[in-house]
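One-letter codes give the sequence; each number marks local geometry. A record appears below:


***
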Amino acid sequence: MIRRDFRSGAALTAAVLAFIALPAAALEKAKPAPKGFITISNARESTLLELAIVSKNKKLEPEIVARGLETGGSTKAKLPKTGGCIYDIDGLFEDQTTIQLSGLNLCKDGVVRFTDQ
């Protein structure tokens, strides 16, 4: 399971800012996943070792939805069945960068794309 700590502050900041600042046009190019699924895309120069979706329902354990997603790769993942749309995301990359994003509406957005810039 992914530890919820920050091991590489500068790299984390760059990756999170790149995710947040991602232009809408880039998101529109990604083909949306079917309802109940999200598309995970790794445009970082490091392999995504593990990505977990954490439900806002504190009784549920984080659910690992991706492992070993190499640079340039993408995959579709099923959302946990919690009856909601708001999730947190925890990720760990091969370069030891951790990603923690909170309060994402994955039903609406449907695409999670990690970039370095």
